[in-house]
Amino acid sequence: MEKNTKKTNAKALLLRLSVVLLLSVSLLSSLAWSKTLKLAYDADPISLDPHEQLSGGILQYSHMVFDPLLRWTQDLKFEARLAERWQRIDPLTMRFYLRRDVTFHSGNPMTAKDVKWTFNRLKESPDFKGIFVNFEDLKIIDDYTIDLKTKARYPLVLHTATYIFPMDSKFYSGKDSQGRDKGMVAKEANTYASRNASGTGPFTITARQQGVKVVFTRFSGYWDKASKGNVSEVILTPIAENSTRVAALLSGDVDFIAPVPPTDLAKLRKNRKLSLVELAGTRIITFQLNQNRKNEFKDKRVRQAIVYAVNNKAIVSKIMKGFASVAAQQSPPGYLGHNSNLEPRFNLNKAKALMKEAGYAEGFSVTMMAPNNRYVNDEKIAEAVASMLAKINIKVSLKTVPKAQYWPAFDKREADIMMIGWHSDTEDSANFTEFLLMTPDKETGYGQYNSGNYSNPKVDELVLRSSTIVDEAERKKVLQEVETLLFNDAAFIPLHWQNLAWASKRNVMIKPILNVQNFPYIGDLVIK
Amino acid sequence: MEIGSFILRRFGQAVVVMLIISLIGFFIQDSLGDPVRQLVGDSVSTAEQEILREKLGLNDSFVVQYTRFIKNAVQGDLGNSYFFKEPVVSVILQHLPATLELTLAASFLVIFISFPLGILAAVFPFHPLMRLVMTLSAIGISIPVFLTAIFLIYIFPVNLGLFYSFGRGEVVDLDVGFIWQTSFLSIDGFLHIILPATALSSIMLPLFIRLVRSEMREVLEQEYIRFAYARGINKWRILFSHALKNAMLPILSVGGVQFATMISYTILTESVFQWPGMGFMFLEAVNRSDIPLIVSYIIFVGLIFVTTNTLVDMLYTFVNPNVKLKDQ
């Protein structure tokens, strides 16, 4: 009896030993290829629902957990993702052929039905419906073919398709524990989709504590076998404080940070253990001159004088420390409407002459408002512009407020001169003018951010026409003409396009996965 | 009996204080910014924004909004955070442990450093070492806490590779009716709390060294201390048992208030160290105009102040039975 127990004990011990051995072997082998990326952004995604908010943070998240039909490359070209190829079949229709080997995280296969479901949801989402307003319908041709139909000829079909991240229609159908539709999009409610996700992307979410961290794990059934990406786990921590984020990278607590504050660029550039990537961004920073509040601004010469008085080159070199590109128009280089003939025009004598010509040699007083935590160095830029205007006898009383209070003030047009920065959601020139400088119209929504009340029927007409021209060369001409008209009218004060910067440890190869949209394609990231 | 009615009266006062705070909170909400603008993307139409504003009840008049708030508050519902999409009470409870533990760790440092140093400085006021301590404490009191925090980060994690620059690291979940995440039950968590706690203590530490020292010096000059010496009582016994006990009263009253103040100082420390506590949560809530969370946080901090003051008053009676509990 006793002997027997001993024997079983020995057996059990042997068994246990071999299990331990096996476990440690498998652990070791998994260590050999498993790479964890510790990532620190300034904020974590506000929701797991890709349609809840049209914001950089949500789109960055979408590229990790979902995949778009197609996506942008670093040189602003389109790259096939869930759509293998596409072709225009008539002036109003673009046909997309979907990949056949794609499964969602839930295990459901991705088909045209899911794309259709996602498209309908986008058209309902308060944030995204604006982008899809020109689309009539999405038609299912067969399980892996869809037709995107526009209401009129529309040049930005592919641009818009980068916003279609197919969602798992089966996963999001049915009722949640509170009896609400699982597919519901809402900001104010604790929806199912804001807590649960099933996409086709390289990562699934395995843990999330809002404001503390999100853990992403590589999806074993990911369709893109050609991707060289070797990150098996991503731990995203939000670090809001700029200097702490940089310190976390310097101390090795994280591997990859964004954004990099301009004050630390010089230091990081010199650091040999780190790599820093800077790209010329596409967000334009401007001031608008309110013609409704200030009669003087109705005079084109006064507006021109102000543009001539603002030394935006100096702002870029002194305040932005070179971390921006001087602008004379809205469209950055690479955009269709970018007109390389338009040059920054600082000239104080000319500015003074124009003021005199307009009969304001003595100058006048204005109010100015700018946010102090929205754009890079926004407050300092506003202060600099105010002192530059003093040189042509325009006395500025400046007020800067946090962004939470700035937007309500901006909507009420509370000052004569207001700062506004804009990034085009479509990566297209027309978007700038549609929001910033077309004649404000409550019905159509055009000119929603035109606090200057600038209005030029010719500009309106050209921009509207541009959205129906499919021929690229012709469209380019129209959009460039818009920039020229705005330039001559001094419709706004152009400052610069903010640059973008990311930094990582040397062995984290971030350069190939970055782009000016600021959507790092983490799925393709290689760690050496 | 006496204590019971005292607590009851204090409780009544607390309710009044919190009502006033909530009224002020609601009154200033318009100048806190527009939550709708924080919830939508830049390009969302004004019409869509208006629909959301209506849904959130932000178009109602001040009176209607406040009445609705009070009605729900009586039932224990302080509303939902716009950002976290959860009841604010549970959001605050999730962030409370991090802040309390940080404050506790800082208080620990303050007590264990300031008492010995303060007493020594009182006993040997002219010793060069003690003079150095006093000078350093004068400097320490005038450096803002976020600067201390950034210095600490650059000295330890960045240059020496010691401790961590942000966050709580590995926390252990304890179930105390809600999930309490503690830093104290794992080595990693403990190493993470050291720097933030040091930074936070840096404001209170100099103050307490000076306080302990001046109170002790005052007591040490009293007649009964000299008598005690004359009777040949052990010097350390005199210091700790006779002198310190009498010096404790003012230290306690200042200390209680300072503990509560420290919770509000955590805003700076927590935002530098990305410490997921209430202070950081509050700062972010202000940035996002998350009004229900802002108002509830202020009410909650008010509650902490009232509670600590009440506790301190009660402690008085234990330290010095001559003190009577009464409200003026």
Give the helix/strand layout:
The complex is a heterodimer of chains A (about 525) and B (about 325).
Chain A: H1 2-33, E1 35-41, H2 56-65, E2 70-72, E3 78-80, E4 83-90, E5 93-98, H3 112-124, E6 135-142, E7 145-150, H4 157-161, E8 203-209, E9 213-218, E10 231-238, H5 242-250, E11 256-257, H6 265-270, E12 274-289, H7 300-309, H8 312-319, E13 324-326, H9 348-357, E14 364-371, H10 378-390, E15 394-401, H11 403-411, E16 417-422, H12 429-436, H13 457-466, H14 472-489, E17 493-505, E18 508-509, E19 526-527
Parallel strand pairs in A: 1-10, 1-11, 14-15, 14-16
Antiparallel strand pairs in A: 2-3, 4-5, 5-7, 6-7, 8-9, 9-10, 11-17, 12-16, 12-17, 13-17, 18-19
Helix pairs in contact in A: 7-9, 13-14
Chain B: H1 2-27, H2 35-39, H3 46-55, H4 62-74, H5 88-123, H6 128-142, H7 145-160, E1 172-175, E2 179-182, H8 187-220, H9 223-230, H10 235-273, H11 278-287, H12 291-319
Question: Overview of this structure, please?
Answer:
The complex is a heterodimer of chains A (528) and B (328). Chain A has helices spanning 2-33, 56-65, 112-124, 157-161, 242-250, 265-270, 300-309, 312-319, 348-357, 378-390, 403-411, 429-436, 457-466, 472-489; strands at residues 35-41, 70-72, 78-80, 83-90, 93-98, 135-142, 145-150, 203-209, 213-218, 231-238, 256-257, 274-289, 324-326, 364-371, 394-401, 417-422, 493-505, 508-509, 526-527. By secondary structure, chain A is of the alpha+beta class. Chain A folds into two domains: 41-238, 3-Layer(aba) Sandwich (D-Maltodextrin-Binding Protein, domain 2); 280-499, Dipeptide-binding Protein, domain 3, CATH 3.10.105.10. In chain A, the strands form four sheets. In chain A, strands 1, 8, 9, 10, 11, 12, 13, 14, 15, 16 and 17 form an eleven-stranded mixed sheet that branches. A four-stranded antiparallel sheet of chain A has the order 4-5-7-6, with helices on one face. In chain A, helix 7 (300-309) packs antiparallel against helix 9 (348-357) and helix 13 packs antiparallel against helix 14 (472-489). Mean pLDDT of chain A is 91; it is low at 1-7 and 25-32. Chain B is mainly α. Chain B has a domain at 88-220 and 248-327: MetI-like (MetI-like fold), CATH 1.10.3720. Helix content of chain B is 73%, strand content 2%. Chain B has twelve helices and two strands, in the order H-H-H-H-H-H-H-E-E-H-H-H-H-H. Chain B has helices at 2-27, 35-39, 46-55, 62-74, 88-123, 128-142, 145-160, 187-220, 223-230, 235-273, 278-287, 291-319, and strands spanning 172-175, 179-182. Chain B has a two-stranded antiparallel ribbon. In chain B, strand 1 (172-175) and strand 2 (179-182) form a beta hairpin. The radius of gyration of chain B is 24 Å and the shape is globular. The model of chain B has no long low-confidence stretch (mean pLDDT 86). The interface between A and B is large, with 50 and 49 residues.
